[in-house]
Amino acid sequence: MRTSGTDYSSEGGATAEVTTLAVETFLTRLTAESQRLPDVERRCEPRFAVTMAVPTQVLNEAHERVGESFVAITRSVSTRGAAFYFTKAVNEKWLAMQFRDREGATITAILEILRCEPRGPLYEIAGRFVGTLAE
Questions:
Q1: Rounded CA gap, 2 and 106, in Å?
Q2: Is pLDDT of 13 > 50?
Q3: Would the pTM of this model clear 0.90, i.e. be above it?
């Protein structure tokens, strides 16, 4: 995986543990100044209210990019997953989401979609991170 600025990966074959560490390190920096959501936390990792535009693209079962990219607006982010808003329902199972921190470093996380629900004129889509993609 290549990043701008900071390298969050290791060389060679990445394991799920290394990938989780890379996502955790990146999002810890990203959410350091964010506020923890005040509702009852049922997850093993805290969520942070992070509102940012995130370039997103559908992936196929082999985690290859397919179709047009779109911009998702995050609602909350943790080291394990994210929830975001979009103008249309997303019916696919896998997405690539490219996060960028204030220093310009990026990481593209693979999100497995767990739910997609209407919220007024938008859809709230949520899922868990299962890996990363090379830039």
A1: 8
A2: no
A3: no
Distance, CA of 122 to chain centre: 19
Cα separation of 132 and 27, whole Å?
A: 13
**Which are the contacts of 119, defined by CB distance < 8 A and separation ≥ 6?**
85
Distance (Å, whole) CA 21 – CA 88: 31
Please give the structure tokens belonging to residue 41: 């936390």
- pLDDT tens-place string over residues 94-108: 999 999 988 999 999
DSSP the chain: ---SSS--S-SSSPPHHHHHHHHHHHHHHHHTTSEEP-SPP-SSS--EE---EEEEEEE-TT--EEEEEEEEEEEEE-SSEEEEEESS----SEEEEEEE-TTS-EEEEEEEEEEEEEETTEEEEEEEEEEEE--
Q: For residues 77 and 23, is the Cβ–Cβ distance under 8 A?
A: no
